[in-house]
User: Which sequence fits this backbone?
């Protein structure tokens, strides 16, 4: 929208408070602030939702892979051939064997349910979710036959055992006796603790070399599953179709969507719902712009009539008031984007401060899954939010601008 010199001058004049126009300016300032808060809230919430999904995806998939080939009855015989053929599928980047079994663990008179995972030593050291998040101890001391394990940091707190301490794993697969099966109890030394940032994992995981896990569970040379990673997780269906003939008769293939379908679907529904609900804040804000412009038109009726008699066109008057309204909306959007960026940068500090003031735990990892408030800003979403706010601001100016352009100077100035 191109304004000539006099239109720009009048628009600038109407944006600034004149004598007796303080109330109109106050309403316009409130409108600007409302738009800013609406845009900031939408950017903050969408970024946090995106960050929550991304963090969960990275941490869950980092430990569980993009797909698993699960053997029937928890045993996958001939896994070497399955893994080798899986690696040859286009798009598959790795296929690694795993042993995973829920058991009981005890230490210092305490008992907790745990998830024992056996991995090859090189896979443990190369897994960033584990190797990059060691809290204490030495993950490199895990070697086959060493009777050493690494456990989640919260599990270590629950059992009261740390690197150098002992932990006993209780497996129901024990030896048979005349009075029944006696559970198998094996003691291990805790070599390291790690914290991946997902509460359920940090509270349950016990990681050991795969050979020790096979001995503990009496699997022989079998494994429980083969973990598969692909180059494009969102397009994993092609790899699943190629893997199914490979494992037919030996097990089933499950991808990351199926393993965590309820969680990710709930996040997606909540993300869409939050976008719609928070968009209403911007809608309410632009109603303030509408009301402030209507008040401005009413206050400037005489000025508009004089301008019309001096040759101002209807189109010019519309452009002036549309520019005023869009400028208020644009300034609100810019301020909202700045507020959103500042809040996201200091988000964890803000959460910690509120917790300190209120004495409430606002971010309980046992409920939120993650140990810290995440954030991931999507430029496409931010652009959509800005365009939505601009569009609503523009639409809110049309009626007041039309009323201003429709002013009849003869009627207004008849008794002047």
Assistant:
């Amino acid at each position: 929208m191109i304004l000539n010199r006099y239109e720009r001058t009048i628009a600038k004049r109407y944006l600034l408070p004149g004598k007796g126009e303080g109330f109109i300016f106050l309403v316009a300032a409130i409108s600007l602030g409302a738009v800013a808060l609406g845009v900031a809230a939408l950017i903050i919430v969408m970024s946090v939702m995106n960050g929550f999904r991304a963090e969960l995806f990275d941490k869950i998939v980092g430990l569980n892979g993009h797909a698993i080939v699960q053997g029937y009855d928890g045993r996958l015989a001939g896994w070497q051939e399955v893994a080798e053929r899986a690696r040859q599928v286009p798009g598959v980047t790795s296929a690694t064997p795993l042993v995973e079994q829920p058991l009981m663990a005890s230490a210092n008179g305490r008992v907790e349910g745990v998830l024992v995972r056996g991995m090859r030593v090189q896979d443990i050291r190369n897994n960033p979710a584990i190797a990059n998040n060691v809290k204490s101890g030495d993950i490199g001391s895990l070697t086959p036959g060493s009777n050493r394990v690494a456990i989640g940091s919260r599990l270590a707190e629950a059992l009261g055992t740390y690197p150098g301490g002992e932990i006993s794993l209780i497996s129901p697969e024990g030896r048979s006796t005349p009075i029944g099966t006696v559970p198998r109890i094996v003691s291990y030394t805790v070599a390291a603790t790690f914290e991946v940032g997902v509460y359920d994992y940090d509270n349950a995981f016990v990681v050991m070399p795969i050979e020790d896990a096979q001995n503990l569970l009496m699997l022989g040379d079998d494994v429980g599953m083969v973990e598969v990673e692909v180059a494009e997780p969102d397009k994993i269906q092609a790899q699943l179709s190629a893997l199914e003939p490979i494992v037919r008769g030996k097990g089933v293939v499950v991808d990351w969507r199926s393993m965590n379908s309820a969680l990710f679907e709930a996040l997606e529904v909540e993300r869409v719902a939050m976008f719609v609900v928070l968009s209403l804040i911007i809608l309410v804000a632009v109603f303030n712009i509408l009301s402030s412009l209507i008040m401005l038109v009413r206050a400037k009726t005489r000025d508009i009539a004089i301008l019309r008699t001096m040759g101002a066109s209807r189109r010019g008057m519309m452009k002036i008031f549309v520019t005023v309204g869009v400028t208020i909306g644009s300034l609100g959007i810019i301020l909202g984007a700045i507020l959103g960026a500042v809040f996201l940068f200091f988000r964890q500090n803000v959460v910690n401060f509120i917790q300190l003031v209120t004495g409430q735990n606002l971010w309980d990892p046992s409920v939120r899954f993650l140990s810290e408030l995440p954030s991931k800003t999507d430029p496409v979403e931010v652009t959509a939010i800005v365009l939505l706010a601009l569009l609503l601001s523009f639409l809110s100016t049309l009626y007041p601008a039309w009323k201003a352009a429709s002013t009849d100077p003869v009627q207004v100035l008849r008794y002047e």
In short: The first strand starts at residue 67 and ends at 71. The chain has a mean pLDDT of 83. The longest helix spans residues 22-64.
